[in-house]
Amino acid sequence: MAVFQKIPKYATSGLPNQTDKAQLCEASDTAAGIVQRYVFYSALCSFVATPRLILKPFQTFYFMLTPQLLNQISPFEIRARQIVEGFLTGLHKSPYYGFSVEFAEHRPYNRGDEIRHIDWKVFGKSERYFIKQYEEETNLRCHVVLDVSSSMLFRYHGEWTKLGYGAHLAASLFYMMHKQRDACGLITFDQELGEMLPAKASASHLRFLFSKLEAFTKLAPESGLQRNTASAEVLHEVAERLHRRSLVIVISDLFENIGENEQLLNALKHLRHRKHEVVLFHMLEKRSERELDFPDGRYLFQDLETGDEVDLTPSEIRTAYKNEIEAYTHAFKMACSEAHIDYEEVDTGASFDLALLAYLNKRKRLG
Q: How many CB atoms neighbour CB 50 within 10 A?
């Protein structure tokens, strides 16, 4: 919720004439209310306030994808871990058999089959004709599903808002996919499904996606927008509307109303049931949202999505809060693992380069 640190009367004489803009953070009114969205406003006096963090301006996402980052991610490929359907030759396994580079199995020769695919070694042993069958390789359709609700506009320790961080992450993944000749699409949502841009592999489409993502980095809590989240309903709709097996990457802080986490998990399972590979990036700022790390004092927390407020002292609930969020994230991670959903927690207060490379290395290790 919205939080103003209360300044003792004896300190008010030291306040500057013009107050700084409020800094943002997120916390919970009680340990049990861990899944609620909150924003914190720092104290206005100079000896308490944290220096303001400014979002770096850039003209296009190519400026955000620095030469250093591009060099670091260039050795990596994002390969589908399961069978996908595509329309070009590429890196990923297709459900359709062809005559490509990787042997799959033998099948009996049928009249009309090409003689050049007969396995003569098998014929020499069995005196029966068998055809070598191969798994065809295809390109990948990747859909990034980006949460653009108001809780994603939170920032306290990080360089960008959670939405800005997620947009940078999506842009980096789009760049890598495009380099592999894979097709990329973007789906946005808050309390309802927003834009649903189809997956395409052209350079012009990549630039179009970048322009959409760039617009999200310019949004700030000061805009006064209050957009709630309805992740479960939206993901069920996405599952019904994506008709071909794809890689679906969900980027969200997963802040739902209390008691709705089971519905969210069921929606993710719905995507898996439709034969999609699902990757979930859980966006949390570690120091503020996981550890409730604020300077001593009393704060007024405000929900970024509803405007509801609660008055509390973070230090009084910190231990219980940390236990609750640890239990919540661990349980959700285990449930995702059981459903074969790739869960990755992302600290939006950490360096973006390090977070991205950590995930790419993990994916490469796991194959």
A: 14
User: What residues pair up with 247 in beta bridges, in sequence order?
Assistant: 142, 277
Global pTM reads: 0.68
Highest mean pLDDT among 31-40, 51-60, 73-82, 249-258: 249-258
Q: Residue 13: count other Cβ atoms within 10 Å of its Cβ.
A: 7
Strands 183-189 and 193-200: antiparallel
| Structure letter (DSSP) for residue 357 | H
Every domain of the chain and the residues it spans:
61-85+139-287+318-366, 92-137
Contacts of 12 (CB under 8 A, 6+ apart): none
For residue 274, pLDDT over 80 is answered with yes
DSSP letter string, 176-244:
HHHHTT-EEEEEEESSSEEEEEEEE--HHHHHHHHHHHHHHHT--GGG-------HHHHHHHHHHH--S
Q: 61-85+139-287+318-366: which CATH topology?
A: Rossmann fold (3.40.50)
Q: Mean pLDDT throughout 144-163?
A: 90
- As a whole number of angstroms, the distance between CA 75 and CA 243 comes to 31
- Residue 271 corresponds to which tokens in the numbers above? 């995507």
